[in-house]
Amino acid sequence: ARILLCLASLAITSVFAADWLETPSSIRINSARLTWPQLLTVKPSSSLQLSWQLPVTNIQPERSEVSMYKDSQEINRFPASKFHSHATLAPTAPGRYSYRVRWHSHNATSEWSDTTILVVADPDWSSAQWMSDAQLFNTEFQTSSTDNAQVLIAGLGFYRLWINNQAVDTGAILNGAWTVFNKRVIFDTVDVSAYLNNGTNTMGLALGVGWRQTSKFPPKSFSSDCDKHERLAKLLLQVGDKVVTISSSRWNSTDDGPFVNTSVYDGETYDARKEPSDWTKPDSDRSWSAASVVTCFNPIMSPRTFPVIKEQHEVQPVAINRLGCPDNSLGGAVPEGGTLTLKCASGTITSIPFASYGTPEGNCGNFSKSSCSSATSLSVVQAACVGKSSC
To answer: What span, in angstroms and rounded, lies between the C-alpha atoms of 100 and 232?
Structure first.
């Protein structure tokens, strides 16, 4: 005789959700509702989820004991159309928590899910200031530890972050989000442990107008005198329980940067010729001005609990026209009203073979005049530059 057993195949998703969205980068100290689907290859009513276990461990600060352990009582059988469950966590202190889940039916128990890390953040923003009105910011700071280092940052309209000349991977290509900015601003929690050195470190921050460069949204019903400050950033760096650096007027800044235009609608125009060298390296040039700070901007700071904007597809350029010059040559092209500086590494400028105030065509070393060109262009530039080391 043969006995045939038919068992439900139970699995658990490897990715949790918070309030039906992806796992957030951080939450406040209050509560986070985690949800998960039950996955059944066969769905007899006897295999519906009846109870679950959700162990949560505090891994930073390090503790050996389980900080929280959620274990449901038996649940009344779910309707056949409902294949999700949820639990509400209420961490009592900031830190990094790991958690996983499994659930039980009448005749089987699922495997444990993959472990997921949740950052619980409740930063004290009172000492950090809103820096404003510049494209680029940098600062130096000291740290004797690199473990459990995280930057909590809000950058408007969007931001890019560097530490020790390395671009920080924030998980997004367009940081920030639309909110009614004078009421609420979203901040990110970014693990930067891998970017730090023991001793001296340099942090660089670039700001674009981005999400704020629009008249369509957010609504202007909450306008204020602070709206004229289109670029704003507030951040703090925590290493363990210690705040190592904050945004303030002690940072250096310049508005003479490569971001010609940054719009969430029209994209970005980037002038690489204006990109400063080594500005995010330790001991980089500190001749910039002190960062401007504003006190008129006091929104609620909320952690991001929704998915970031990620790269979906990269379009390769058909061609790249470089503005650089051949070896032993100087030159370039600038728009009307712009400034072009010629400077020899050594010696003096010996000749000016081409100059055109108009609409020249081609690239440096292969320029040609168009129908629009001033007849005195070459003689004016020759008189200003030949025999000089720079002009």
So the answer is: 38
